[in-house]
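re the bet — no i am not wrong, look at it urself. input seq straight from the record:
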Amino acid sequence: SLTYLPFISRAVVDAIEEFPHLNASVGDGELVVHGRVNLAYAVDLDFEGLLAPVVHDADAKRLTALAREIHDLASRARSKQLSADDIADGTFTITNPGRYGTMMQFPVINQPQVAILSTDGVHRKPVVVSDADGGEAIAIHSVGVLALAWDHRAFDGAYVAAFLDRLRELLETRDWVAEL
């Protein structure tokens, strides 16, 4: 079964196409924007450390391929079966503390990367939705919070806000069935 992490990952890849400075690193006083998206995933090792294995070329993978690779890397990280290549060359990190039911966490950037996204807990909440007549109604939906930490040397908050808005739009409106 699919968790929400691969969906968020795929939407991140697509949003990065429009906001490429998020897929960058700072080196020798300059911003290096990477051509490929290599998503790193922060994996907790039972409170005894953290590893960030990498899905290389995530921008070339469909949803189900991302899901399989995320699961495989996380399993191998927890069993300490990763190679050096498995943890090299990340360009953007996603951390997923949501399994602990967190409302919002402020992650630390995996330098030299310039950004990290936190996918916090998904909770059922009342939200305002449009009804069939164009009016408003209250409905119960699954709602999650995404938080982004970034390096201000790379870009400012307006760039981040626009990226997060695009990410939200992709998550809410994309035809995910076509990805399966």
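see?? The helical segments are 4-18, 63-78, 157-173. told u. also The domain at 4-179 is CATH 3.30.559.10 (Chloramphenicol Acetyltransferase). so pay up
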